[in-house]
Design brief:
It comes from Limosilactobacillus coleohominis 101-4-CHN. By secondary structure, the chain is an alpha/beta fold. The protein contains eleven helices and seven strands.
Amino acid sequence: MMRRLKSLRLLKNKIVLITGGSSGIGAQLALEAAHRGAIVVVCARNKEKLEEVAHKCLILSGRPSFAYELDVTDPDQTDQVLDQVRHEVGEIDVLVNAAGLGEMVPVVNQNRKSMAKMVNVNLLATMYLSRCVAKQMMDQGYGAIINVASLAGKLPTPNSAVYSATKAGVIQFDNILRMEVADYGVQVLTVNPGPVATHFFAAADPDGSYLSHVPSWMIIEPDSLAKTVWNNVGYKTREINVPGYTSAIGWLYQVMPGIGDWAIKKFFDFQQNKDLL
């Protein structure tokens, strides 16, 4: 089984399905996979942007690429798209759950609708897609499931309570899914990036109050993140924390949470944010 899993290290002619593939991290992962010779399938709600990404993938890989319109929060549509992919493209070798959204505001200022939407997109959709594709990969005896979580799922920061909770949920879901599928040759890789230079914050943090507290040297370039992710597929890697030093910070927070809370509130100038309530 490990030999078949190792075949994913090159990605050539492997079928890679990516949700959230029309922009941001998902699009960059699609382009890098295509550069490595994969047959890329991108899914998202914006069909026009999806087709642009798929066309770029075709040029990069010289292989067919596909775009499927998908609302990941709709399980019936998810089932339908997965059936289409299997019949029109083939069995999925790598699944990437990169669809996600956030809202960086104090939790007391969030309405239930926006809270539910984050849970549905970031957590429930990731769990359902992983569950569906894991069954197929167990039958074929190999595969990789890559779920994009976040550093926010390990380190609490003000104004991101619900978003962070969904990402913490993804991390724990992966920890258990990994145990359940490991004996079938399926890798479960959790990706925990810090802030990435995409349009994510344009919607999640429109006034810049969250991002303004993040120093520029902490911002991650999406193409660099994509290379790091694909360099770890087909191995026994469980988790990627980017930047790498955040692994140590996360460990320190677990050991000294009181000091961690004080440092994080100081870093994010949390008293100023409380005054906005």
